Amino acid sequence: MKKSQSSTEFMVFVGIAIIILMAYFAIAHIYLNLTYKQKEIISGQDLAKQIKNEINLASRVEDNYERKITMPEKIGEKDYTAKLQKREISISINDLDYIELLITDIGQDEIALTPGSQIIIKKENGQVTIS
Predict the structure, then answer these.
(1) What are the DSSP calls for 54-67, one per residue?
(2) Each residue of 100-129: pLDDT tens digit?
(3) What is the pTM of this model?
(4) In a designed cystine with 116, which of 33, 59, 65, 73 is the match (CB 3.0 to 4.6 A)?
(5) Is the separation of the CB atoms in 94 and 74 below 8 Å?
(6) Distance between CA atoms of 68 and 130, rounded to whole angstroms?
(7) If residue 82 lies in a helix (H) or strand (E), which one and from where to where?
(8) DSSP-derived pairing of the beta strands 81-85 and 88-93
(9) pLDDT tens, 21-45?
């Protein structure tokens, strides 16, 4: 009787250990997915802020300013779209939009920024233009 009771107790403890181990892996998987999602969010925000800062800088400096920026091919291995409107820049990744407001009007209605392309920010005659 004693041997069968100890082997039953051992099997119960092993079963509990397996359940705890499975719960640990499930929780670790959830946190890993959250980390990847946050990386994607931060990357989208960083690109929007970088372009915003360059355009805002161009609006504050003297005429004949010119700056070239190369858009990345992908953000965190994901495709994205970017566009500039009168006073805002928006980056879209997987149906999430990251929008930054500009301190100046770029004078053009809407500009699509294609991934991998090079954009040129200029200031001439007091007006900031993007090409």
Answers:
(1) HHHHHHHS-SSEEE
(2) 989 888 877 788 888 989 999 988 888 888
(3) 0.72
(4) 73
(5) no
(6) 10
(7) strand 81-85
(8) antiparallel
(9) 999 999 999 999 998 888 877 888 8
